[in-house]
Amino acid sequence: MRPDGIHPRVMRELEEELAKPLSIIYQQSWLSGEVPYDWKLAHVMPVCKQGCKEDPGNYRPVSLTSVPGKVMEQFILSAITQHLQDGHGLRPSQHGFRRGRSCLINVISFYDQIFYSTKFVSLVPYPEDKAD
């Protein structure tokens, strides 16, 4: 159970009734820059990754936080990501951890710049046994 004692299914079934009060809380939280204390609480549960359940090394911690707090996290993440992508911090060449971009696309883009560019590029070989 989550720290607020509310099951996510209850939130989903009451979404129309909760939409207005939660939007007011989200707006006040956004303007004040503070998150309600209860949304910061979490229950940490051990979850077995794989293998023998008797081995403590096979478990990883999972934090169960409140559903409204997780929704607020998504709002904040979306706002920060949008700000960074609108020319305030991420160059088009940065691909890591961005939606729709991968390391493979970055390598292909780099390859294209090297082999199809009119600019002079020099590559320095590096021995594989030294690439630790």
From TrEMBL:
Top-rank lineage group of the source organism: Eukaryota
PANTHER family: REVERSE TRANSCRIPTASE DOMAIN-CONTAINING PROTEIN, TRANSCRIPTASE, PUTATIVE-RELATED-RELATED
Protein name: Reverse transcriptase domain-containing protein
Organism whose genome encodes this protein: Willisornis vidua
